[in-house]
Write a structure and sequence with these properties.
Blueprint (H helix, E strand, L loop, with lengths): L5 H12 L14 E5 L2 E4 L4 E3 L5 H6 L4 H13 L13
Antiparallel strand pairs: 1-2, 2-3
Amino acid sequence: MSEYIGAQGILEKKKKFIMPCLGHFYFSPPQFVRGQMQYLFDDAGKKYLDMYAGVSVINCGHCNPYITEKIIAQIQNLQHVCNIISRKIS
């Protein structure tokens, strides 16, 4: 199991890395540790309906099993290709 940074650690990171004008949105943040389709789960196991998800989550859900399976299959074959043009070696 991973060690989590907790609400205070989240607040410190948000103050450091997010614009100061957004700080008031994060007075007591849950620490999400798992996602499953339209739900998120915090470090205490509480289940949340994610009504503010980003574009891909709205369409696909968190950790959609079909998509996760396809991602795993892809990275088992080819994980990364450099965008620098290479010459063919023959």
